[in-house]
Amino acid sequence: MTRRGAARAAAVLALALLPLTAESIDRLVVTWHPVRPRIGDISWVHVRGASDAAVIEGSVGTRPLAFFAYAGGHAALLGLDIDTKPGAHPWRLAVLEPGVDPHQLSGTVTVRPRAFPVQRLTVAPGLADPDPETERRAMAEGQQLQMLYRTISPERLWRGPFVRPIAGTEPPSGFGARRIINGRPRTPHGGADYSAPRGTPVVAANSGRVALVGDYFFPGRLVALDHGLGLYTLYFHLDTVAVTEGDHVDRGQTLGTVGATGRATGPHLHFGAQVGGARVDPAALLALRLAD
Ligand SMILES: [Zn+2]
Fold first, then answer.
1. How far apart are CA 122 and CA 106, in angstroms?
2. Distance, CA 58 to ligand 1 centroid (Å)?
3. pTM over 0.90
4. Which of 48, 110, 149, 213 could cross-link with 73 by S-S, CB 3.0 to 4.6 Å?
């Protein structure tokens, strides 16, 4: 075999070895990490081969992807909501580059199933079944939060790994639990709970902007951080709050202290994470490793 022939054979072999989830058109390569995420995971897609000037738009099912510059290419996070159906979910991307015809790419991400525990809780009757006026208030507050989570700030504000919101090593519990409160099934638990004494400092999991400080019926005193590109972290049931809306915070900066405000059976931190409106496992956020 000539040297050129060997090079060509190596190139053909390299193409054959590309993972099935990588789609390439011309020079564009799309790779998903991990290849087969579970319900509640954060997956991310890496697009290589487009110019720095390229604008990439995309979605998985109905969820939009917000791309950012990453490792000489472009990347976007995908949140696999707690209620995602296992199986294949279609994705599509459009790569728009000045002076070049737009490229359309598509494929599927296969989501693995995950079993969630069932949790039975007893709370004061007024907290389980609020009176109609309180119910309206709680509903309006829930809608306000949904609107916030769907707001995609264009700038990426986080860098490096996300850290635990309270000191210690004990893992949080309860993400995805199918909750039965006072004998009636409720919406699944969208965050993870850290039990800690009242007054324990709560810190920002990463840098971002304080998008909301509130005192809501179910979450109690709360802080929502916007990390940009549709990624939010949430800190509920706080006793005190040490930041105000609009503040920029750094990773590890104190946001307030653990309490038992709102619907809480005792002092604990409810820590939530949202990616593009998907409720994801905060543990997946803490495990997220991008090389920057
Ligand atoms: Zn909770």
1. 47
2. 32
3. no
4. 48
CA of 115 to the centre of ligand 1 (A): 18
Where does a domain end: 47, 78, 111?
A: 111
What residue numbers bound the domain in which 243 lies?
118-287
Q: Which of 198, 268, 269 is nearest to 233 (CA)?
A: 269
Last residue of a domain, one of 78, 94, 111: 111
Strands (E), 113-187: 118-121, 178-181, 184-185
Q: How far is the CA of 214 from the centre of ligand 1 (A)?
A: 16
Q: Are 192 and 283 in contact (CB under 8 A)?
A: yes
Residue 120 in this model has a pLDDT that exceeds 70: yes
pLDDT in tens, 10-34: 444 433 334 434 444 568 999 999 9
- The CATH number assigned to the domain holding 51 equals 2.60.40.10
pLDDT, one tens digit per residue, over 67-81 is 999 988 999 999 999
Rounded distance from Cα 254 to ligand 1 centre (Å)? 20
CB of 227 within 8 A of CB of 151? no
Rounded to a whole number of angstroms, the distance between the first and last alpha carbons of the chain is 42
**In the prediction, which pLDDT does 179 show?**
85
User: What's the gap in Å between 34 CA and the centre of ligand 1?
Assistant: 27
Q: How far is the CA of 283 from the centre of ligand 1 (A)?
A: 14
Whether residues 179 and 273 share a domain: the answer is yes
How far apart (Å, rounded) are the C-alpha atoms in residues 9 and 1?
Answer: 10
Give the list of residues 6+ apart from residue 157 with CB closer than 8 angstroms, or none. Answer: 207, 208, 209, 226, 227, 228, 248
pLDDT of 49 strictly over 50: yes
Share of the chain above pLDDT 70, in %: 91
3-state secondary structure of 213: strand
Q: Sign of torsion, CA 215 217 219 224?
A: negative
